[in-house]
Amino acid sequence: MSRGALAALPEPVIMRGAVTAPPLAPTTGRPYRPVVTLNGWTAPWRMKDGVKEFHLVAEPVVREIAPGMQATLWGYNGQSPGPTIEVVEGDRVRVFVTNKLPEHTTIHWHGQRLPNGMDGVGGMTQPQIPVGKTFVYEFVARRPGTFMYHPHADEMTQMAMGMMGFWVTHPKAPHPLISEVDRDFCFLLNAYDIEPGASTPKVNTMLEFNLWTWNSRVFPGIDSLNVRLGDRVRLRVGNLTMTNHPIHLHGHEFEITGSDGGPWPLAARCPEVTVDVAVGQMRQLEFVADEEGDWALHCHKSHHTMNAMGHAVPTLIGVDHVGLVKKIQKLLPDYMVMGERGMADMGEMEMPLPDNTLPMMTGTGPFGALEMGGMFTTLKVRRDQAPGDYRDPGPFTQPPGTRAFEWTGALPAASRPANPVAAPAQSPALTVKKPGADHKH
Amino acid sequence: MKLKVALAFAWACIQVSGWAQSTVTEPDGQAWRRANAAVGQHQRGHADILAQEAAQTQVASQATGTAGPVLNLRQATTTALRQRPDLWLGPALNTLETARINTQVAQLSHQVSRAWVEAVAANQSAAYLQDALEAAEAGAELAQRMAAVGNWSQMQRVQTQLLQSDAA
């Protein structure tokens, strides 16, 4: 390729804000049905001599994690994650990568078939991209599917700081194992450890992250997935955190139709309501949204549906505080009894928090506090959601008589044995061998 | 305990005053990009920063000059004896007088030794405290810079600054 051909780079497009951009319909190149990136966007491109050209700028960014919290991260083109790159199988793709970070970087195109020198492993397949320089990656998107991109240079730091993005290669022709869907959503699982009151992640955290995010957002900052009743829906979920995430959908069964390894054969698909997405994996979930309502979609690790929490807070359930509160308040006037009846108070109480810090359990629905955070959002299935309309229709109006209700009739007395069975005098000692204490995720 | 009360007080102050969050979290990202660009200028990191500090120190030491010499113990004792002609031995003295003066010389020498050791210790102590203060000041300044780019909370900054005020 001549230097002249590269003389004019496509201007990088910078995104401000964390709204979910509408799907970017292709105006050049082969047609396809575009994806929707949750709280993200698809990078525009230009066609140059039959090559799709993108321009990514690796740079410091300020990302709103949810309203009330801004994180100082590294990302691409103004946000973290970077823009989704959408191309079609067989496209020749040229990506300019400009490094505006204070240290070198590279981009690894996770899962792609490409020439070895385009794989982006700094020091091994290419020299690192120095500060201030622009490198060019160019290859043919050979395999249709769902991929990710991320640095392979000072990788732990740069990923802890938010550098990653999504890549979708659409099939060039109808594919027997890739279905046409009405709505196609994608998001990356990522995680940050940000001290309450600070804004930059701790880059040396290995497992004890305190913000479990989808596309660098937490509940209630993650947009809902709004679909029309009867839509065939695909979710593409990639995991760039350091632990696995069982992604669970309420109200529907889905099938795993593929991964970044490609579409799965029909014989490998089975109905599920939860899929574990392991570290570095990609999963495509597909289902027909045929139950109206507001359906939770979340990671099933319950501490991943919490925001920053104090792991050192002791369990206080059942501990009587009467007579101690005033004494403790002499030293700590703000001292507040909490946790003695469980932690639900956390979802309802307004407590003083450091600046730039989200409540641990938060969010409000039509029936009260949701007590959630982190990797949680809602699939909203509506009869009257117009095709192509991705706007939030608001809370679901349930048909009368279909909601859990209070029983006001008589209750039978509980039958408990009067005297518990006496334990045998010589009970064999119960020894429990617990696994090592190093399983911290 | 004293520290804990001080921390609780400092935390209460933060809550009341609602100290402004550092500007690096402004959504336009300008301040955050500036902070990254500033550290990015030192492309070799530590080595470049040392070179820059060395250049600054050279200018500073030329301006202030260096401290004068200090007496050693022998010089201090000799100087003290020179101020006491009454303790100088002469040919006219008898044995008893010589012994008395020798005793007084020994006492003076002892006092001078003691004062000298105390003075040296005080100097070293002052120098050490000065070093400790400078280290605490550097720590507090670093904490301030950590908080300014959002890496530390105001709480963490205040904890380090309390160490500085203890040292001062």
Q: How would you characterize the overall build of this protein?
A:
The complex is a heterodimer of chains A (441) and B (168). Chain A is mainly beta. Helix content of chain A is 5%, strand content 31%. Chain A is built from four helices and 23 strands. Chain A has helices at 3-6, 155-160, 325-331, 345-348; strands at 36-37, 46-48, 51-66, 69-76, 85-88, 92-99, 108-110, 134-140, 145-150, 165-170, 183-192, 211-214, 225-228, 232-239, 245-249, 255-259, 262-263, 274-277, 282-288, 293-299, 362-365, 368-372, 376-382. Chain B has 168 residues and is mainly α. The longest helix of chain B is centred in the C-terminal third of the chain and has 54 residues, at 95-148. Chain B starts with a helix and ends with a helix. Mean pLDDT of chain B is 82; it is low at 12-22. The interface between A and B is medium-sized, with 30 and 32 residues.
Write the layout of secondary structure elements.
The complex is a heterodimer of chains A (441) and B (168).
Chain A: H1 3-6, E1 36-37, E2 46-48, E3 51-66, E4 69-76, E5 85-88, E6 92-99, E7 108-110, E8 134-140, E9 145-150, H2 155-160, E10 165-170, E11 183-192, E12 211-214, E13 225-228, E14 232-239, E15 245-249, E16 255-259, E17 262-263, E18 274-277, E19 282-288, E20 293-299, H3 325-331, H4 345-348, E21 362-365, E22 368-372, E23 376-382
Parallel strand pairs in A: 1-11, 3-6, 5-10, 11-14, 13-23
Antiparallel strand pairs in A: 2-3, 3-4, 6-8, 7-9, 9-10, 11-12, 14-19, 15-18, 15-20, 16-17, 16-19, 20-23, 21-22
Chain B: H1 2-17, H2 30-40, H3 46-64, H4 73-82, H5 95-148, H6 154-167
Radius of gyration of chain A: 25 Å
Distance between the termini of chain B: 19 Å
The H-and-E topology of chain B, N to C, reads as HHHHHH
If interface size is counted as residues with C-beta under 8 Å from the partner's C-beta, which chains form the largest one?
A-B, 30 and 32 residues
* Overall pLDDT level of chain B: 82
What percent of residues of chain B are in strands? under 5%
How many distinct beta strands of chain B?
0
Which stretches of chain B of 5+ consecutive residues score pLDDT under 50? Answer: 12-22
Q: Give the fraction of residues assigned to helices of chain B.
A: over 70%
- What's the story with the biggest beta sheet of chain B? none
- Give the mean pLDDT of chain A: 92
Classify the oligomer.
heterodimer
